[in-house]
Design a protein that fits this description.
Layout: H1 2-10, H2 12-53, H3 92-96, H4 111-130, H5 134-156, H6 161-174, H7 183-208, H8 215-228, H9 233-254, H10 266-291
Helix pairs in contact: 1-2, 2-4, 2-5, 4-5, 5-6, 5-10, 6-8, 7-8, 8-10, 9-10
C-alpha cells in the first residue's frame, strides 16, 4: 500500500489516471445516491407521520422492508430485472448494452453515464490541478458531493442535510491546517455563506411575500464558505447568479418554461463553487485589478 501511494506521488500521470477511474466508479455510486436519497427522505417522513397518527399500540404493525443506499439491489424500474456486476461497469456497461435494459429492452436514462463521466473528468482535473496531496483529496470529495447535490436539486428541488451538513464540517476539517484557506477564514466563510442567502431570502420575502429559495441553499453556500473561505462568497454568489440568470432566461424563452415555475439554485451554487475552487484567486485578483484606480 505504501508503495502504491509512493507511485501516485511520484507519477502525476498515474495519479491522474487512477483518480479519473476512481471518479467513474464513484460516479456510479452517486447515481444511486441521486436516485435513492430523496426517496429515503420521503420514506422517513411518511414513517414519522404514521408514528404520530397511529394508535399507541403498534404491536400489529407490519415490518418495513429495508430501503437504503445498499438495499435492495439495483433493478430496472420497468421489469424489476436485477442489475448484475457486469451490467454495472461505469460507462462501459451503458455502451455494451446500447443504453437498454438487458431484461426488457427499456431505455436506460442517459443521465447515468453523464453523472459517471462528469465525476470522472472533474476528479481527474482536480488531480491534475492540485497534484498529489490533501488539496486534491479534499477537492475530489467536494466535487463528488456537489455532483450529487446538483442532480438531486434538479430532480426534486431539495438539497439534503445528509450531504450539505457533513460537507460543511468536512470543509472546516480540511482547513484545520490551511489546505484551502485558514481555519479562521473557513469558519467566517461558513457564517458569511449562510447569512448572505438568509438575508436575501428574508428581503425577497418581505418585498414580494414569496419564498425565493430554500434553506438548503443557505447551507450549501455555508459549506462552500467553509471550504474556500469568506472571501470566496461574493465570487461564488456572482458566478452562480450570472449562470442561473442566463439558464433561467434561456429556459423561459427557448423551452417555454413558465416564469412561475421555480428553478433550483443549488446547481448554480455548485457550479460557482467549482469555478472558485479552481480559479478563485485568479478571478478575484483580476476583478480587483479592474477596479483599481490607475
Amino acid at each position: 500500500m505504501i508503495a502504491f501511494f509512493q507511485l501516485l506521488h511520484d507519477s502525476p500521470a498515474v495519479f491522474i489516471s487512477f483518480t479519473g477511474v476512481l471518479g467513474l466508479l464513484v460516479g456510479s455510486f452517486l447515481n444511486v445516491v441521486i436516485y435513492r436519497l430523496p426517496k429515503i427522505m420521503e420514506r422517513e417522513w411518511r414513517l414519522q407521520c404514521a408514528e404520530l397518527t397511529a394508535p399507541t399500540d403498534s404491536a400489529d404493525s407490519k415490518p418495513v422492508a429495508a430501503y437504503n443506499l445498499t438495499k435492495p439491489r439495483s433493478a430496472c424500474p420497468h421489469c424489476g430485472h436485477q442489475i448484475s456486476a457486469m451490467e454495472n461497469i461505469p460507462l462501459l456497461s451503458y455502451i455494451f448494452l446500447r443504453g437498454k435494459c438487458k431484461g426488457c429492452g427499456a431505455a436506460i436514462s442517459i443521465r447515468y453515464p453523464i453523472v459517471e463521466v462528469v465525476s470522472g473528468l472533474l476528479s481527474a482535473f482536480a488531480a491534475w490541478h492540485f497534484g498529489f496531496g490533501p488539496a486534491a483529496a479534499g477537492a475530489i470529495l467536494l466535487i463528488w458531493a456537489l455532483v450529487a447535490l446538483t442532480f438531486i436539486d434538479f430532480d426534486t428541488q431539495l438539497l439534503p442535510d445528509d450531504i450539505t451538513l457533513p460537507l460543511l464540517w468536512l470543509g472546516i476539517v480540511f482547513n484545520l491546517y490551511g489546505t484551502f484557506t485558514t481555519l479562521n477564514n473557513a469558519v467566517a466563510g461558513a457564517i458569511a455563506g449562510y447569512l448572505t442567502l438568509w438575508s436575501v431570502y428574508w428581503l425577497f420575502k418581505l418585498v414580494t411575500g414569496k419564498e425565493g429559495m430554500g434553506y438548503g441553499d443557505f447551507k450549501l453556500l455555508a459549506a462552500l464558505g467553509a471550504w474556500l473561505g469568506w472571501s470566496s462568497i461574493p465570487l461564488v454568489v456572482m458566478l452562480s447568479s450570472v449562470v442561473g440568470a442566463v439558464v433561467g432566461i434561456t429556459l423561459i424563452i427557448a423551452a417555454r418554461h413558465g416564469r412561475n415555475i421555480p428553478i433550483p439554485f443549488g446547481p448554480y451554487l455548485a457550479g460557482g463553487g467549482l469555478i472558485a475552487l479552481f480559479w478563485g484567486q485568479q478571478l478575484t485578483q483580476t476583478y480587483l485589478g479592474l477596479l483599481a484606480v490607475p
